[in-house]
Model the fold of this input.
Amino acid sequence: MNTKVKLLTLLDVFSLYGINLLSPIFSVFVIEKIDNGNLKIVGIALAINLLVGQLFSLVMARYFDKTKGNADEYKYLFFGYAVISFLPIFYIWATSIWHIYLLQFIGGIMVAISYPAWRGLYSRNIDRGKEAFEWSFNASANGLKAATAAILSGYIADTFGFNYVFMIAPVMGIIGIIALIKIRKYFLKSSA
Done:
């Protein structure tokens, strides 16, 4: 497995670890802490995130396929992961349903911007003849990330409260953003 594939997988794990901390506690948070929060609100909020993210990611993917080099992918990946990393902190001030919908909408837009960029970079750098393993390596790393995030966020929220999860979440994202800055040379030297 080449260095770029390893770096992109580690970047994916660290940059998105923080937002993964929210997954196991999101429903309980909305029901307990948001005015008039209930499971319908949770469902609508998650649907907003998923619909926006999936529909707009197709637009971004087309854009990335039409551009040469890695510069655009890197910029959008950096921007998207940076916003995704800091998004959890805003849940501290969320009290209304529209706050939840807005944060989920922003998260969906950032998914649409960053995921196709990451996938483009990853796809261009996987080793020929090892595609199945390298995609599976990434999926396994992300699965382990989600599992550890679930355990950690449940423990933190139950022991210390939701706000601690929202404050800790950006820390992992910051590690990912620092890593993204440091690995920039691997992805931008070939784009001219």
